[in-house]
Amino acid sequence: MQSRSGSNLEGIDVSHYDGTIDYSRVKGSGIQVVYIKATEGTGFSDPYLSQNYENAKANGLKVGFYHYFRPNNDANARQQAQFFVNNIKGMEYDCRLALDLENAQSLDKDTLSNLAKVFLDEVKSLTGSDVVVYTYTYFAKTNITPVLREYPLWIAHYGVSTPGSNPIWDNWIGFQYSDTGSVDGVSGKVDMDEFTGDILLGGYVPVDNGPGQTSAITTVKDVQTELNNRYRFNIAVDGIAGSQTFMALYKAVQIELNNLGRNLAVDGIPGPLTLGAAVTLREGDMGGLVWALQAILICKSYSVGSSGADGIFGSRTLAGVERFQFAEGLIADGIVGPLTWRKLLT
Question: From 169's CA, which of 212, 221, 301, 311 has a CA 20 to 30 Å away?
């Protein structure tokens, strides 16, 4: 199993248990993906399904849906698939449709796994969309057979940065690493997730530029506008890379690191704790922390290419990092490790 990475998409998964959610604040906290409970069994539709969907989409978040599986036979598994699909009909989703497989229903693992396969195949047949299996490490070890190996995994394992091994899968595209997370806009604790780009239908797409910012983010003024949109800051949009702008950028780095499980004060002061929590970034990485890196480079007058700050560490961002490292007397290897972060955050 791979470990968590700063290149991944940050997400949460929610249901009626989370109550009414302020998705503008969720988006501002750096969350990019929201998985919403749609259904359970053959008769329960989550009462917050429509509300969660409409508000999440309105705030530009990537949306996925999941179904909690309660099977007993082949016909029932197909009924659950149809029920799930019927409840999300007409809704536009960005992520693989997920089967929440964590209740054995007193079935042996062969029967349970075969019924899960029936459900997954039926959902894909009905929608044409790709699917993903959600489960937790112990359940995967004790209740699932290799018949489900063909489907990608969304694994739950709390309190670790690398989920434990299981005999079915050796990698994941989703990792629920906490059920006691704290996200602005959600009352109480919430499930925290990290996703690779494979969770998205059609693969990874650049980070949404946000309301009011439709072109590439290539200038200081663009960065200032996006900092206000993305994190709900209120800094001057004057094109001047002064102390206020850099404090906002450092806060953005702290927010993105907190989304990776750190517990930093979001004060814009990059002290030892922030520097110690920084995640190494390199070419090929993606996500909110990459966006913050690109924004800092732009404000320090280092171009990251015509695509601007898009959350993708490509060749032009690599070149910008190397130029910055050379100017600062560092080894120009394009890898943003502790020494480079120290220079970036001063």
Answer: 311
